[in-house]
Amino acid sequence: MKSEIIAVGSEMLTPHRQDTNSLYLTQKLNEIGVTVAFKTIVGDRRKDLVNVIRTALGRVDILLLMGGLGPTEDDLTREAVAEALSLTLRRDATQVAALHARAATWRISMPQNNLKQADVLEGATLLPNSNGSAPGQWLDTIFSGYRKLIALLPGPPHECKPLFDTECLPRLREAAPPRAIATRTLKAAMLPESQADKLLAPIYTTYADVETTILAHTGDIQLTLLCAKPTLEAAQQRVDELAGRMEEALEDWLYSSQGDTLEQIVLYYLGLRQATLAVAESCTGGLIAQRITSVPGSSRSFLGGAVVYSDPLKSAFAGVPEDLIAQHGAVSAEVAKALANGIRLRTGATIGLGVTGVAGPTGATESKPVGLVYIAVSEAQKTDCLDRTFRGDRDRIREYAAQQALDLVRRRLM
Q1: Which of 176, 203, 309, 324 lies at 20 to 30 Å from 81 by C-alpha?
Q2: Which range of residues forms the domain containing residue 266?
Q3: C-beta separation of 124 from 138 below 8 A
Q4: Is 64 helix (H, G, I), strand (E, B) or coil?
């Protein structure tokens, strides 16, 4: 069965509010074998609401609407569903009494506009909302000759999620045919999206029953595999088979086959080797340390480090000779190596990591353009350094540099 989630609210069409409920609902639907085919955000305009509801009912079996169940004039989900399905709304006396009782607990008289929260779609079942005043509604109906399951859910997450779990999931489990969805996420670092697809498309296109999506982020490729079968074992077998072939093709670009973050993998390898890491960051300004320390338990392998943005601090905290900076410049392979080696010696870490570069938009020269970054990894036996020139704005360059640095440590540890 296919489903669609519609988030209702003009505020979610601004940069100030984001729909997060749909992520939770998608996970829950996938767990019972229901695929989410579409997600829609629509503002508080009745005509638009009616149009998207009719469109959704023409293409999916299950429709979940979130929001627009409040007492104000712009809460129009009930009215829009009624219009889209040519249904009437009736005012439920029991719900009216419940609204009055709720207001009494707050020692206030209930405003008359709250009464619209007692309006129930013809043929619908009220879904009790123990965390708010707006009940949900469940409708099992026929649209254009086909059975449709429709749920109206409140928008606030602390109301939407528990109501969906207790009232909607049991109904959906009963209605949905036996079906299981297996997923797997592979991740590769510093591999261009086009190159990833060139490597992998000849493989995943032969698995018509497995949906493969490629998501590119800054220096990171995420490959999600999804397969639906009557049993979880059958679905997982297909996903694992495809994942195994893709892992072989990705070779050492691959850093995780189970959805782990790059920093988790770095810490995993550090733990295996009983090694420790310290960092000296210039242009990344602490981004690398922040990512590593976001992982619980990272203190077992990560000692810390320093943000050495100014030249004097490069010398004071990481022991970089002043004449080395004067001779080669703060952005250079020589200084990156000295940062990595110096922070390793200062902290007693097994591995030292040094990063220096031009994040921009100022500070560039003809020989050292914006985006030029030097990254060095130091161990007692040797110190390696690579240089990259990343494109983008200041934030993007810094994110690329942090990702490249962590991947360089991973490759050294491998």
Answers
A1: 176
A2: 262-413
A3: yes
A4: strand
Q: pLDDT band for position 109 (50/70/90)? A: confident
Q: State the average pLDDT over residues 66-78.
A: 93
Model confidence at 65, pLDDT cuts 50, 70, 90, reads: very high
53 shares its domain with 118: yes
Is the pTM higher than 0.85? no
User: How far apart are the C-alpha atoms of 80 and 86, rounded to whole Å?
Assistant: 10
Half-sphere exposure for 225 (CA within 13 Å, toward CB): 30
Residues 283 and 389 in one domain: yes
385 and 304 in a common domain: yes
Which residues contact residue 150 at a Cβ distance below 8 angstroms, ignoring those fewer than 6 apart?
57, 62, 63, 64, 65, 81, 137, 138, 139, 140, 141
Task: Please tell me whether residue 62 adopts helix, strand or coil conformation.
Answer: strand
DSSP string over 9-36: -GGGGSTT----HHHHHHHHHHHTT-EE
pLDDT at 281 over 80: yes
State residue 297 phi and psi, 5-degree precision: 85, 5
Q: Which long-range contacts (CB under 8 A, 24 or more apart) does 383-386 make?
A: 383/337, 383/340, 383/341, 384/408, 384/412, 385/333, 385/336, 385/337, 385/340
